[in-house]
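Feature request, filed as a ticket because there's no other form

It would be nice if the structure record came with a short human-readable summary line next to the tokens. Right now we just get the raw output. Example of a typical job, pasted below so the devs can see what we mean:
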Amino acid sequence: MKKDLGVKPYTFPMPVLMIATYGEDGTVDVMNMAWGGVCAQNLVALNIDEDHKTTENIKARGAFTLSIADIDHIEAADFFGIASGNKMPDKFERSGLTATKSTRVDAPVINEFPLTLECKVRAIQNDELGFRVVGEIVNVLAEERVLTPDGKVDPVKLNAFLFDQFQNGYYAVGEKVGQAWHTGAGLMKK
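Raw output as currently delivered:
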């Protein structure tokens, strides 16, 4: 029997995404974001609060990068969700990570994260439903070590982790258990 839990933001899995921007003085700012993701073939949505330093930077620069955090850098990724760029100007330096300027957008690429989407702002929405940035993916960068021989991202090699909204935990991405648009094909014949 199912138990009524009320209104909760319970969806699973949720990716752990790192939004990276430049501040007005060129400093790197990174924010951990769980509420957002792909919203179209070439678009991502960032559902963030308007008072973040990252939001200010996105508005000023019109660009950001979005990286998949990996287990090797979970400590820094979690730190980026704890520390506020508004209160801690050396937040990025404290992480020990490094950045390189994107060649396609006015935003930093965090060198240690294995997969990065380079995005330009397509729309900023602020209404009764909240604040949202829609970014257009202009390129994807991936470390060769996370690619299959045919050049696709291998989720196991990516070593990503997921956010659990039920208990505020992080979980490693596990084994492959099926093939999309194939595993359920047998039910088409019924």
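Something like this underneath would help us a lot:
Residues 109 and 149 are 24 Å apart (CA to CA).
The mean pLDDT is 94.
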